[in-house]
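Incident log entry.

Two folding requests arrived from the same account within the same minute. Monitoring flagged them as a possible duplicate submission, but the sequences differ. Recording both here for audit purposes.

Request one:
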Amino acid sequence: MNAIPSAKLYSPALLGLATGLAAFPLSGDFPLTAEARSRSCGSVIVLGLALADDGTVARIGMRVSACAIGQASAAVLAQGIRGTSPARVRATTEGISDWLAGEDALPDWPGIEALTAARAHPGRHGALLLPWKAASEALSSGAASR
């Protein structure tokens, strides 16, 4: 009986997303950085961002040590963040948190529907939110406030 919820949670699409993180390596040249840790599961993400002249996100890099849910969530973030305003990233982070709490609909973000099965698994909520919190924190520092 436990295999059914697990199979739904760890779908081939979700696991495929997790493998896509190699396209977003973290280097030392990102002006905005943040690290986030999940107390509940021990996941860690270090994230770097660079903004374009218009204030939108130009580049992202990550080092992720998390379960497949955290990795897939990081990949969804990374694949859709280019050209996005800091305000939209923060609003999406809040929207995901509200959605996980059952208070709102899933926010509009490219590919985010791949994470819907995680809502039924509260033990994975922290990992799912981790990359979004790190991005919001990085964008709240320094040059991102413009």
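Request two (distinct sequence, not a duplicate):
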Amino acid sequence: MPRRGSGPGERSAVNSVIAKIELIAEWSGRLVAWLVLGMALVTFAVVVLRYGFDLGWIALQESVVYAHALVFMLGASYTLKHNEHVRVDVLYGRLGPRGQAWVDLLGTLLLLLPVCLAILILSWGYVADSWGVREGSPQAGGLPGVWLLKSVIPLMAIGLLLQGLAGALRSIDLLRGRLGAE
């Protein structure tokens, strides 16, 4: 039930923003989930080629490392959306929905958003330098796109910032009495 200062238009606009942000997180998580299957298949191929045929390719091995990095970096916002990040749950599980909303909101504002902003700011030069030289693998025969992989670092920070914003808005809505205890 809406409380003072929260008309239906404001509520639907906030819900629309939350839904759009969470759609991005959901889409990215489902997309990178397929990389896990790809990683398993490529790892299997590397092992079969190496031990069955005495063949090896650095680029093939590096592709597993790249995919692994992508799974973690691009799947971070999906994991946050589904409340699956590691948390010290000593008190959180005992709190009611409002208490959990306070912990989520304060954790987002005081920890998640500052860390994501720091990652975004601090990675900018690192990524720009990599782009400047079109950095490739230091290994002979390795993958040439290290600069593309490093570009995912600020994307991860942006994804987490957006999902953190959606979570904060959801917590605020719950604290203002606009959401039920889901």
